Amino acid sequence: MAAASSSARLRRCVVSPAGRHSASLIFLHGSGDSGQGLRMWIKQVLNQDLAFQHVKIIYPTAPSRPYTPLKGGISNVWFDRFKISNDCPEHLESIDAMCQVLTGLIDEEVKSGIRKNRILVGGFSMGGCMAMHLAYRNHQDLAGVFVLSSFLNKASAVYQTLQKSDGVLPELFQCHGTADELVFHSWGEETNSMLKFLGVNTKFYSFPNLFHELSKSELEKLKSWILTKLPREVEGQNE
């Protein structure tokens, strides 16, 4: 199935820009959540929507599928995992299938007139992992990647791809709580160090006493990074 047609099946929640749309951001939720759920969580933490004058924010919802860590229970997840650990193989078949679907979302934005270097992808937890696979293995010409409370497995296919890459890579913005008991802070740090070693320009911020959750200071930092990567364009400057 073509990527564009399969992406049409993804439910999504969109926050439109207040002014002229000149950039887009795809924000992927964590396992078991939804696009609408992530948007509402962010709104709760910030006391307002994450919104911009010129950036359209797309919150897609992962399709329902059996999820091995839930003993095969059905959940909204971007891909399957053998277990929640950085020390096991990746479930590449499901990751690659979802990369195709999410490529359709990127293609839709490009068709609507947004250049790829004006598109950011990122996510929370599993969504951040998905975003790294999507950008670093399939779309190295995106504006950047952001990941919150996320990690890659030790032998990740992302690392294997980057070992063979010699172009300019999307910058990575990464945040992690030191008290995270689900995705350990050390897993996030290790992921960041490895990506930096492989040529990615990275920013890593630790948040003391933060669990597997979002914080206001983290989201405000993310918001200012988004504006540095996707500044507003002056009329006529986007040729």
From TrEMBL:
Annotated GO CC locations: cytosol
Keyword Ribonucleoprotein attached: no
Keywords for this protein: Acetylation, Cytoplasm, Hydrolase
Annotated compartments: Cytoplasm, Cytosol
Domain Phospholipase/carboxylesterase/thioesterase stretches: 14-227
Main subcellular localisation: cytoplasm
The keyword Lipid biosynthesis belongs to this UniProt entry's keyword annotation: no
Ranges annotated as spanning the membrane: none
Gene3D superfamilies: alpha/beta hydrolase
EC category: hydrolase
GO BP term, example: negative regulation of cGAS/STING signaling pathway
Enzyme nomenclature, EC number: 3.1.2.22
GO molecular function: carboxylic ester hydrolase activity; palmitoyl-(protein) hydrolase activity
Pfam families for the chain: Abhydrolase_2
Protein function: Palmitoyl thioesterase that catalyzes depalmitoylation of CGAS and KCNMA1. Acts as a regulator of innate immunity by mediating depalmitoylation of CGAS, thereby preventing CGAS homodimerization and cyclic GMP-AMP synthase activity. Does not exhibit phospholipase nor triacylglycerol lipase activity, able to hydrolyze only short chain substrates due to its shallow active site.
UniProt record similarity statement: Belongs to the AB hydrolase superfamily. AB hydrolase 2 family.
Protein name: Lysophospholipase-like protein 1
Organism field: Ictidomys tridecemlineatus (Thirteen-lined ground squirrel)
Gene that produces this protein: LYPLAL1
